[in-house]
Amino acid sequence: MTLLEIPWNVNPIIAKLGSFELRWYGLLFASGFLLGYQIMLNVFRKEGKSEKDLDTLLFVMIVATVIGARFGHYFFYEFDDFLKNPGTFLIDMITPPYQGLASHGALVGIVTALILYARSHKDQPFLWVADRVVITVALAGFFIRMGNLMNHEIVGKESNLPWAFRFNLFSMSPDGNLVMTPEGFARHPAQLYEALSCLVLFGVLFFLWNKYKVQTPRGLLLGIFLIWCFGLRFCYEFLKENQEAFEDKMALNMGQILSIPAVLLGIGVLIYTFTKGKNKEIV
């Protein structure tokens, strides 16, 4: 045991009333959407877009994020179980609590939803809206990873670094209360690494949009987001425990495999931006 480790004793439950639990994860998850809405409201006002469209965009983003992340979790991590009982999993996919969210699935869901949104809003082409939405997605990524930290989940591998966290194992007492037992060793706070990376990414993307606004090159922010977010995700996975047992036999885990096409897509978007896409609209 190192004296420099950080004991992480945060209770994931903020308050409990009967069977209802208010958790840090849910509060932080919702905060991402609420602050994201305010950011997009600022964007729409400064770029002369109709604020009425924001309600539709918010609804699209919530549905796409939840369904995409839930479906992605089952498809990428529990596919065999999903095939055995698809009806149960489909119901579980859309009903809270949302235990098991895959960011790569959320990406697919959001991109698909934004393509459909852009087709019905001709003044907001796909690359225009995607460039601005990823600003809020980066901020949401910060809140979600902080929620994972509060939940003591998606933990890193064992570490003796001075900033290593000693997380807790959870069990239920006979009276139904949550019991936290510290692990026997400290770990990389991988959730914090990703959270801070997302927060810095949010700052970079917002700075670039605020500098160029309407003149922001189409695809610039989307390309940066994909390369930054999933490039670092690929690297951070080397410091994290695998989420599922089947990944232990793989040279690269599922998160790394799925991050590769996202990074390549980001590179492709930036190539388009600086060659053919400067004066073109894409729906």
TrEMBL record:
<dbReference type="GO" id="GO:0008961">
    <property type="term" value="F:phosphatidylglycerol-prolipoprotein diacylglyceryl transferase activity"/>
</dbReference>
<feature type="transmembrane region" description="Helical">
    <location>
        <begin position="97"/>
        <end position="118"/>
    </location>
</feature>
<feature type="transmembrane region" description="Helical">
    <location>
        <begin position="220"/>
        <end position="239"/>
    </location>
</feature>
<keyword id="KW-1133">Transmembrane helix</keyword>
<dbReference type="GO" id="GO:0042158">
    <property type="term" value="P:lipoprotein biosynthetic process"/>
</dbReference>
<feature type="transmembrane region" description="Helical">
    <location>
        <begin position="24"/>
        <end position="44"/>
    </location>
</feature>
<feature type="transmembrane region" description="Helical">
    <location>
        <begin position="251"/>
        <end position="274"/>
    </location>
</feature>
<keyword id="KW-0472">Membrane</keyword>
<feature type="binding site">
    <location>
        <position position="145"/>
    </location>
    <ligand>
        <name>a 1,2-diacyl-sn-glycero-3-phospho-(1'-sn-glycerol)</name>
    </ligand>
</feature>
<keyword id="KW-0808">Transferase</keyword>
<feature type="transmembrane region" description="Helical">
    <location>
        <begin position="190"/>
        <end position="208"/>
    </location>
</feature>
<dbReference type="InterPro" id="IPR001640">
    <property type="entry name" value="Lgt"/>
</dbReference>
<keyword id="KW-1003">Cell membrane</keyword>
<comment type="similarity">
    <text>Belongs to the Lgt family.</text>
</comment>
<comment type="function">
    <text>Catalyzes the transfer of the diacylglyceryl group from phosphatidylglycerol to the sulfhydryl group of the N-terminal cysteine of a prolipoprotein, the first step in the formation of mature lipoproteins.</text>
</comment>
<dbReference type="GO" id="GO:0005886">
    <property type="term" value="C:plasma membrane"/>
</dbReference>
<feature type="transmembrane region" description="Helical">
    <location>
        <begin position="56"/>
        <end position="77"/>
    </location>
</feature>
<feature type="transmembrane region" description="Helical">
    <location>
        <begin position="125"/>
        <end position="144"/>
    </location>
</feature>
<keyword id="KW-0812">Transmembrane</keyword>
<dbReference type="Pfam" id="PF01790">
    <property type="entry name" value="LGT"/>
</dbReference>
<comment type="pathway">
    <text>Protein modification; lipoprotein biosynthesis (diacylglyceryl transfer).</text>
</comment>
<protein>
    <recommendedName>
        <fullName>Phosphatidylglycerol--prolipoprotein diacylglyceryl transferase</fullName>
        <ecNumber>2.5.1.145</ecNumber>
    </recommendedName>
</protein>
